[in-house]
Design brief:
This protein has 340 residues and is mainly α. Helices cover 74% and strands 0% of the residues.
Length: 340
Amino acid sequence: MSKFKFLGSFFAFLILAGISCWATEKSLHMLLPAGWPEILVWGITAAFFVVASIGTKLIADSLMSQQFIKNRKGKLWGGVFLVVFFWLIMSMPTNTHTFFYNDKIGSTISEDIKITSKYLQQVVDSKKIDEDGKKIKDAVEEQIQHIVAQFNGDEPPYKRGNGEQIGLHLKQINIILNSSIRQDPRYNSQDSTILNGYRLEIDKALAQALKNHTVTEESVQAARRQIKRLAALNDSIQDHVASASLSEEEIRQCEKEIKDGYNIIAANKTFIQFDKNSDDKEAYTKENAETKTKRLSSVIDVFFVDFLSGKYPGSFWYYVILSILVDIAAFIFFDIAFKN
């Protein structure tokens, strides 16, 4: 092999390997726990790619060489093993993930902010009480109407005062509110203070029962503040996406603010009407909920879960093919450069 051919092939290999290793390193660095030195991740990435390249050379030599090769089958299967584990499972998915991530992260953040802000706005606009709470309140109000009517003699047996039927309605209220309101012992008395006393006790028990069904002012204010923060971030993100200057630090800040929005939504989920034709309810309310922005940074979730389960459209194959072509080209130049 001429020196020029070797240098040309080797140089082309270095360029393509550099692109592949950059993509793999970025994906791995997002996946690994915080604190891993980037230089160490680069070292792992480069080592894995060299091993995969050696694997392709073992396969090529075993299949294409006309010369005698000792343990040809062993080298062939050894090469297949190296390519499968160091390229097919490691390099190709991480490269695909990085190409996809770089293209989609801006729009994913914007969508995450838009949907999160929409549900936060429902907390702000909440009518203060959820559907279950409304049912409790309506049931109690119905019993109160009967008590008033009984006391005024407007319902059977049409006898005014603190009669037996009032006790039955109080019992129903106690069942609804899990309370212990007792009937005034002055039976058949028409003293209006008895009716006023019932109302005060019922209102107190109802307020206690509705605590878990009522959005707090703190939640409303927290949702309102978070909407403003997300809106400001979205404006900044759009500017940086347009100028191709979106940094990882800004993305991490967006993840934190969006996650805070998720937490507010989860804490007030009973006051929110989630879109029926989506998985938003599960995404926002499950334990340890993960934002769409955070999920996009994981090669395991993007490639091995979402892509392989058919979540992404056919256009995702473009990134897969791009990754394959870059790596195969690098392997070809490696095999040419180091051909026996």
